[in-house]
């Protein structure tokens, strides 16, 4: 496979990694917004800690997706 053929695959892999990272960030925000905008959810200290732990997990996944994109770019010959 030539470098020209690899570029679209690399571009797609980077785009997909960035989209996955954004999706994980959005999930964190959406969950928090759900908690604070609906009276059905009681945001006591325990629930807030759980919400923040979930956000941390989603952001860690986002970082992994971004690192994957970076590694793909770094491993591609110029």
TrEMBL record:
InterPro entries: DUF8103 (IPR058416). Residues 6-74 form the DUF8103 domain. It comes from the Archaea. Pfam families: DUF8103 (PF26405). This is DUF8103 domain-containing protein.
């Amino acid at each position: 496979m030539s470098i020209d053929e690899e570029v679209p695959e690399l571009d797609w892999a980077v785009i997909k990694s960035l989209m996955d990272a954004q999706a994980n960030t959005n999930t964190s925000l959406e969950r928090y917004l759900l908690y604070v905008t609906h009276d059905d959810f009681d945001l006591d200290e325990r629930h807030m800690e759980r919400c923040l732990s979930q956000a941390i997990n989603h952001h860690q996944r986002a970082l992994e997706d971004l690192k994957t994109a970076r590694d793909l770019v770094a491993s591609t010959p110029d």
